[in-house]
Design brief:
two-stranded antiparallel ribbon; 69% helix; flat
């Protein structure tokens, strides 16, 4: 959630200092060369770090629609591409400022225990939402409890699933996490699955992954996460083997088993490959083939 701040920090790491705004304007108006465009881009980034004021904001707004001035041939073909895109850099800085403002406002609402922050989030644009999510990282956990119940109600509304997921992870709230797994958008849940074991522990994660596997579009991804638990949790290994007979999950289970099949597993697969259950037989054969044993 702090990607914008990190990118800005990295971009400024070797900066030689801020250029006065009037010189930045003059550079933007001068005949463009590769050198001048690169210097202008670096100056815009430096403004983002050091000169947050009305004049700087107005200057960046004026540059945000500036067409690229210097074009070069792409290294992998004949297409002409911008040498640098000053306008895109200006928009990036403006968006990072909006995100920072949203974070500050959200932290103030959290300190005031104001549950209206959820409505603010749902009504916000991408930058405002990102700033509010940034605030959740820095706010005291007890202030987040104000949002918790409202987040459950909003879990499938607009982008509410992402906010609910952020709260579930920060609070290690199993009920809220289960709500996200059942009702959140597929994109939100897919990003959440790898974090379950780290947040809640392997045993609780296994139960939560069962919830995710009830959703057809998430079942395979959830089973892969079960497979990641097999070294720590015998029940997870049993669940993967059980899935060999599942019409939705059998191929996924075969892939998981084939990745790390030892002698005992290969013997078990050979038995299932000659068994009476058609789906188990089919997927056991698949696992043997994927592992190079057939």
């Amino acid at each position: 959630m702090k990607i914008a701040a990190l990118l800005l920090t990295l971009a400024f790491a070797t900066s030689a200092g801020a250029m006065p705004l009037d010189k930045v304007r003059a550079l933007a108006d001068a005949p463009a060369t590769r050198d001048s465009e690169k210097r202008l881009e670096e100056a815009v980034l430096e403004i983002g770090r050091t000169k947050r004021n009305d004049a700087a904001h107005a200057l960046l707004e004026s540059l945000a629609d500036r067409p690229p001035q210097v074009w070069i041939t792409h290294e992998e073909g004949s297409a002409q591409v911008p040498y640098v895109d000053v306008a895109a850099t200006a928009r990036f800085v403006l968006r990072s400022w909006r995100r920072s403002d949203a974070k500050g406002a959200a932290l103030a609402k959290l300190r005031a225990l104001d549950p209206a922050l959820i409505e603010k989030y749902l009504a916000g644009d991408a930058d405002e939402r990102a700033g509010i999510l940034d605030a959740l990282d820095d706010a005291p956990a007890d202030s987040l409890l104000t949002l918790r119940n409202a987040a459950i109600d909003r879990v499938t509304k607009a982008d509410g699933g992402k906010l609910a997921q952020a709260l579930a992870g920060r609070l290690a709230d199993r009920e809220l996490q289960e709500s996200v797994l059942r009702n959140g958008t597929s994109a939100v849940v897919l990003r959440a699955l790898p974090e379950l074991a780290r947040t809640f522990g392997p045993q609780a994660a296994l139960a939560m992954l069962e919830t995710a596997m009830r959703r057809d579009e998430l079942a395979s991804a959830a089973l892969f996460q079960v497979g990641a638990l097999t070294e720590k949790l015998p029940a997870a290994e049993n669940r993967v083997w059980q899935a060999l007979g599942d019409p939705r999950l059998g191929a996924t289970a075969a892939t998981i088993i084939a990745r790390s099949a030892d002698r005992h597993a290969i013997e078990q697969l050979e038995l299932l490959a000659t068994g009476d259950e058609p789906l188990q037989r089919q997927h056991a054969l698949l696992a043997l083939r994927l592992g190079g044993h057939r």
